[in-house]
Amino acid sequence: MSRTGLFERLGASARVTVVSAPPGSGKSVLLRSWIGEAGLADSTGWVSVGRDDRDPQRFWLSVLGALRQTSAGSRLVRELTAAPDLDGWAVLERLLKDLAPLQDRLWLVLDDVHELGSAEAERQLELLLLRGPPELRFVLATRHDLRLGLHRLRLEGELTEIRAAHLRFSLAEARELFAAAGVELPDAALGMLHERTEGWAAGLRLAALSLAGHPDPERFAAEFSGSERTVAEYLLAEVLERQSQEVRRLLLRTSILEQVNGELADLLTGGDGGVRVLQELEEANAFVVALDVARSWFRYHRLFADLLQLELRRTASSEIGTLHHTAAQWYADHGYPMEAIRQAQATQDWGLAVRLLGDHWPGLQLGGQGATVHAMLAGFPAEVRATDAELAALAAADELVRGSLEAAERYLAQAARGLDGPTSVPAGRRGQLQVLIGVVRLLLARRRGNLPAVADHAQRLQAMAEAPEAAQPTRGAAQELRALALISLGTTEVWTARFEEAQRHLEQGRALALQIGRPFLEFSGLAHQAAIEGFRSSYSLAAERSVQAIELARRHGWTDEPAAGIAYVVLAIVLAWRGRLDEAEPWIQRAERTVRPEAEPTAGLLVCYGRGLLELARGHCTDALAAFRAAELLAGLLAAPQLLLRRVQALRLQAMVRLGETERAERALAELDEQEREGGQIRIATAVLRLAQDHPRAAINALGPVLDGSAPVTRSTWLAQAFMLEATARNALGDPAAAGRALERALDLAEPDSTLSAFLIHPVPALLERYARHSTRHAALISEILDLLPRDQPGPAGPGGPGGSGEPTEAWGGGQPSQDRGGFGGIRVSSPRLTEPLSQGEIRVLRYMPTNLSTPEIARELSLSVHTVRTHIRHLFTKLGTHGRTEAVQRARALGLLAPSGRTT
Questions:
Q1: What are the residue ranges of helices labelled H in 693-848?
Q2: Which of 264, 545, 788, 841 is 20 to 30 A removed from 165 (C-alpha atoms)?
Q3: Which residues contact 724 (CB under 8 A, 6 or more apart)?
Q4: CA angle, corner 167, sides to 165 and 172, nearest 5?
Q5: What's the mean per-residue pLDDT of the chain?
Q6: Exposed/middle/buried for residue 220 (C-beta within 10 Å: 0-12, 13-18, 19+)
Q7: Helical axes 201-211 vs 171-180, angle rounded to 10°
Q8: Helix ranges (DSSP H) in 379-498
Q9: Cα separation of 446 and 600, whole Å?
Q10: How far is it, in rounded angstroms, from Cα 545 to Cα 522?
Q11: Whole-angstrom distance, CA of residue 746 vs CA of residue 735
Q12: Three-state SS string across 800-842, please?
């Protein structure tokens, strides 16, 4: 195979290249392929060092003979025959003299140089490497590093090193290798083989040979291991049988471990010096890999470990159980609970395994390691789950995470029965089991959105953890349990619109999580705080906290956790409300991939709401209806009315109206009870319906309590919708002045947080364009809204036709303005004017100038270069006749280009 990247490294200009890797890594094949492809056969001398080349004279005669086979060497290197009085130093000096005139590039390849058993020959070779002529290049292929003083060449930049990691085949190279052998494998099977061989060339080649003509290649790939006959024979002959009896004993008895250090090796072998042996094996490239810089922990290549375990079963099967038990105790005593559990399971010491998992489960769960817990639980047989109360509680928690609330409740009931029984749980474990059951009950109540139950379980859990009679592990975890209780309470309060309490509990929980070093809890709290900001106050802050939570998730590997899904969907909703629909799409998709609605109904409801909002803003009302219907079904799984449910119902009604299904919308509205119909969001939806039915006066009546605050809505986005709908209704009733005031108020509410989608859901382009002809206020905002609307975008169904403009017979503005009120809708327009109109780009930048965003941050928001933003700012200063940002904002406000400061939303 042509391995271009490695060929380039070999052809580099360094004086010496060392290729050091385990047997079967493809060193020799690589070098021969490189020589052939580079056309170097006539300028390369090749010496294969054998086990018998321990005599320096014999080695150097082989070197001279190889060099004489090259075109340059045949002219310069004199022939030499063996003689009793001829030593290696004399040969070396003669060779250096012969090669001194060398002008052309000459390569000397020494293959299997680790077999060079003479210390004297190694010293002579080192001298040749250092004193050879500039055009002589060396390639040394070896199974382990040689003591040749190469550190000096490394410092001088004259050493190229190719090691096992470089020689490992990539997945693409493995596919090419199998194809060359006439073997076609599905991607999954090829991936398994590549993973198990770790890209080891000999392993892949042996697998390819065995697969040729195999009746079931996929099954072979699934079962391939180091115990496969051809692999086992190779590893036995090339690695294991070359080791001493002491080293073989260590390798076999430690093969039961995924990772091993010197202390463990000594414990399992009954000897000492284990760390020295492991380090020497790693230096010798004997399929032993160091895992840390200090070279204190090691692992074995997967296929080599398979072979060692096979040999252990063959030679010492009766000792395997004792080895596992000894390792389990060592891991437990030294703070490695997961490894201890695996070893206890391997020896079927179920009691020890359950006790270890129960003691460490809270920390694992609070550390975002639910997948690890699931893998541990899979190692217990069904009969143990059926009889052990503590394991049943752990299984309940796992089922909760996986999304099966019913299975979780069954296991929880089983655990509670065990707790109540007189003998099923040892006295020393009852407190721990009580805490486990309490945590699961808390999490189950949180999943169901049952705030009273969450508060009750949170209080009970803290009391249990802090009780004087609590077990030591429980007392040690008291702060963790308190942090969990606070975060659980806060997240449940978010969904029931208790924002003040939620913010307080989440802030306390995050602070405690930071104090005790539980970033997963901090991350979960931050994601839900983003949701609070999105529901009630600032979209900018909601986006900021979402991004912070997403960065935490990326840093710690929690991107598939439900809390990450919350952050994704909050960011998507913010972008959707701001009219940045294309940017919102990938985030809502991530949320849909991450959140499992059956496991997290509240998060699932939020995702469905986000999807529905995005589709409604796009005008895809059928898709929006499907999303809102799914959200309503999820709300039915929750114990208490949901904050989002009214919003979902309101937008669902609006989607029906936009589809022209007014009768269906009327029926859906009638199915709501009186209290629900009186809510602010439902009143807004009712107004949409009444406008579509050509009843603008009824629409105004529905909106009245929303506009006067007696039927409040939590976000200015909804209030902006209400004023915009009022503008449409007033215009239809022939009152353009009132329409102008209502539209002005809608724009005032939308501008601070750039919430444009209200104008996409209820498009009124004609009203906006007419407003813009009479006033320069909100010019940038209106321009951006109109840019987002398709040119043929219809407005809400109802009087006045598309856009809800309904041209009245009287002039726009309602006749002659009074003395103190002028311009559009009776609102005074400032007299100063710009000397030159602003461009669309300048208008967009101007809207961000009142904020605290820096120029680079404005550039990111607008997807522009920093240079472009700076150019727009310079032009704005010129056209506004100002010299600084603050002065420019004041001037723009005076001209009506920006809303006055201090407006409430």
A1: 696-708, 716-732, 736-750, 757-761, 765-774, 779-788, 840-848
A2: 264
A3: 742, 743, 746, 758, 759, 762, 764
A4: 100
A5: 84
A6: middle
A7: 40
A8: 382-387, 389-402, 405-420, 430-447, 451-466, 472-476, 478-495
A9: 9
A10: 12
A11: 17
A12: CCHHHCCCCCCCCCCCCCCCCCCCHHHCCCCCCCCCCCCCHHH
All residues at 6 or more sequence positions from 776 whose CB lies less than 8 Å from its CB, including other chains: 829, 895, 896, 897
Please check whether residue 529 is in contact with residue 503, taking contact to mean a CB–CB distance below 8 angstroms.
yes
Q: Are 767 and 695 in contact (CB under 8 A)?
A: no
Give the position of tokens 């985030």: 587
- Reduced to 3 states (helix: H, G, I; strand: E, B; else coil), residue 209 is helix
For residue 17, give the nearest of 29, 4, 6, 32 by alpha carbon. 6
Q: Is the dihedral of CA 348, 350, 354, 355 positive or negative?
A: negative
CA–CA separation, 15 and 24 (whole Å): 26
Q: Is the pLDDT of residue 864 over 70?
A: yes
Place of tokens 């017979």: 809
Q: Which residues are registered as beta bridge partners of 110?
A: 47, 140
Strand partners, 111: 48
> What does the pLDDT average to over 466-473?
56
Q: What is the pLDDT of residues 585-600, one digit of tens each?
A: 999 999 999 998 877 8
Report whether 310 contacts 227 (CB < 8 A).
Answer: yes
Q: Coil, strand or helix: which one is 32?
A: helix
The answer to whether 29 and 19 have CB atoms below 8 angstroms apart is: no
Average pLDDT on 157-181 reads 88
Encoding tokens for residue 47?
């010496």
Residue ranges of the alpha helices (H) in 239-273?
Answer: 245-253, 262-269
Distances 356 to 337, 435, 469, 896 between C-alpha atoms, Å: 6, 15, 20, 69
Question: Closest Cα to residue 522, out of 367, 370, 402?
Answer: 367
Using pLDDT thresholds of 50, 70 and 90, give the confidence band for residue 402.
confident
Cα-based distances in Å from 34 to 28, 427, 827, 892:
10, 70, 82, 70
> Which residues lie closer than 8 Å to 842 by C-beta, 6 or more apart?
872, 875, 876, 879
Burial state string for 772-801 with b = 16 or more CB within 10 A and e = fewer than 16: bebbbbbbbbbbbbbebbeeeeebbbbbbe
